[in-house]
Design brief:
With 199 residues, the protein is mainly alpha-helical. It has one domain. The protein has 8 helices and 2 strands; from the N terminus they run αααααααββα. It has a two-stranded antiparallel ribbon. The chain is globular. The two termini are 24 Å apart.
């Protein structure tokens, strides 16, 4: 098995789902109007990713090739349902309503299906766990940073707390859909610039 820290670093930096692989864009652009929404979506996706990776790696030898993808979807859907119920029961209603439809859509998120196919179906449970942690952290950090940038520049707040004075000019377009594309493009360029410079 590869070094667990190397697997986690790979998910956060080398193969970051958002800034490097550019997958899972639907929730990335839709829910990151604030840092709290980004954190909620990232943690939810990470929880499903970790659990699905471990279970798929444990049952991979019992799944016939012809039904591999449907079997993965059933496993993922089971964990998404559990996460949805937990959020509905314990998350603030404002967060649950903001994430809305995007929680059930985690089932078809290409990050989770991609890691199930590319990693969990070929590796053991421990390595798959660390892969899920790395990819989940990478996705969560990306969503948090994107949400924080959009919220701070667009509304002058960070995690719902007013930082800039009310008189400070706000760039409301960053909270809207076009702002998501602009902020993501700028952050992606910065991330890859520093990643390539280090390499």
């Amino acid at each position: 098995m590869a070094n667990p820290l190397k697997i986690i670093k790979n998910g956060i930096i080398d193969e970051n789902p958002t800034f490097v692989q550019v997958i899972g864009m639907c929730p990335t652009l839709a829910v990151t109007s604030s840092a709290i929404n980004g954190l909620g979506m990232g943690v939810s996706t990470a929880a499903v990713l970790i659990c699905a990776n471990v279970v798929i790696s444990l049952i991979r030898n019992f799944i016939p090739d012809k039904v591999r993808i449907p079997a993965f979807v059933v496993v993922i859907a089971s964990f998404v349902t559990i996460v949805d119920f937990i959020l509905q029961a314990y998350a603030p209603s404002s967060l649950y309503n903001a994430l809305g439809l995007y929680i059930p859509l985690i089932v078809v998120n290409c990050i989770i299906l991609g890691r199930a196919e590319a990693f969990a179906s070929k590796n053991g449970a421990v390595a798959s766990f660390f892969d899920g942690v790395g990819q989940g952290l990478g996705f969560t950090i990306a969503l948090c940073v994107l949400g924080l940038v959009r919220e701070f520049i667009g509304a002058g707040t960070a995690f719902g707390v007013q930082i800039l004075p009310e008189t400070f000019p706000q760039t409301l377009i960053l909270i809207m859909a076009p702002g998501a594309f602009f902020a993501l493009g700028m952050l992606m360029a910065l991330f890859n610039y520093f990643r390539n410079k280090k390499a």
